[in-house]
Amino acid sequence: MSAFSFHLAATDGRARTGAISTPRGEIRTPAFMPVGTAATVKAMYPEQVREAGADIVLGNTYHLMLRPGAEEVAALGGLHTFMNWPHPILTDSGGFQVMSLSKLRKMTEEGVAFQSHIDGARHMLSPERSIEIQCLLDSDIQMQLDECTPFPATEEEARVSMELSLRWAQRSKEAFVSQPHRKEGMALFGIVQGSTYEPLRHASAAGLRDIGFDGYAVGGLAVGEGQAEMLRVLDFTTPALPEDKPRYLMGVGTPDDLVESVALGIDMFDCVMPTRNGRHGLAFTRRGKVNLKNARHAADPRPLDAESTCPAARDYSRAYLHHLIKSEEMLGSMLVSWINIHYYQSLMAGMRAAIAEGRFDAFRAAFKRDQAAGDIEAV
């Protein structure tokens, strides 16, 4: 089995393109990871996700530990076999969902004790248990357990939270190294916290670098601070991360978020936005967002994008997509989710090519012009 590695192929300003090598395949960067929360990218076949251009998907530790259970997935051959996705998978640590979804929770130095949002059963998620679950799932890239600092937070609140995450990072690394279920080629990423405070972000990054990880994520953003503040934090955070390791911005975001974050040196993203919006009839296109619920689409025979290589965007009329969404037919969710995942992957491919060819600024400007122009006849 090959080892995990990151190759930086080209830079254009602070934007980077390269590839992450894993035993299960290569991840081209910048990369967008469709979210497969419960071992499925909602309303999508795995083959469609792959054909759209995705090299990697994300699975959720919290949801999978509760149902069907990490040990159960391991007994069935691991997450890749279970969900018929033989390509790389990243699993989050579960900490964010514990804090946002569980009925009752109590955080201590040991970890987070919580009740399942499904059946009320009690669980303890510690750094050690999170790593054990992720190894049982057999994910290729695993995340340390951290506390996602709420926004807004005072500097003192953010410091206490960040320092707890750093201690958990050390325990996560030790658990990963000694975990009996760990396989050669698996990778562990640390998570930079510190809210919107530059000294705290730099202290977190320095502490994580001292521990040593295969990649570094920026957490605690896109939690209500707004895009301008998020980009301000990224502007001073990414330079504090190693140049020879992947940089992952967690839970982001809109197409504009992706382009602006790549401009600041981010390599990896995940977000439920394309599929969640797809299930509600909001399509992402080269010319901006299209709300297919709007009555103006009811008699429109045109496809959503005649030039798209995605069959869902090219071969079905807007009138039909509108009908499916308004009728709450499952096919509507499937087609618009497909359109959105395909668009997100096309956007990443466009950025990779632009960076490699030294024309990222021009790509970024053209993207903004197209998004601002919009689909005048239909939106």
CATH class membership of the largest domain: Alpha Beta
Strand order of the largest sheet: 4-5-6-10-11-12-13-14
CATH third-tier fold name of the largest domain: TIM Barrel
Supply the helix-strand structural class: alpha/beta
What's the overall geometry?
A: globular
Beta fraction of the residues?
Answer: 15-25%
* Gyration radius over CA: 20 Å
Q: Based on DSSP secondary structure assignment, what is the total number of beta strands? A: 16
Assembly state here? Answer: single chain
Main β sheet profile: 8 strands, parallel, barrel
Average pLDDT:
96
- Quote the distance from N terminus to C terminus: 50 Å
Number of helices: 15
Report low-confidence residues grouped into runs of 5 or more.
none
Into which percent range does the helicity of residues fall?
A: 40-55%
Q: Mind telling me which CATH architecture of the largest domain this is?
A: Alpha-Beta Barrel
Quick one: CATH superfamily of the largest domain? Queuine tRNA-ribosyltransferase-like
Number of domains: 2
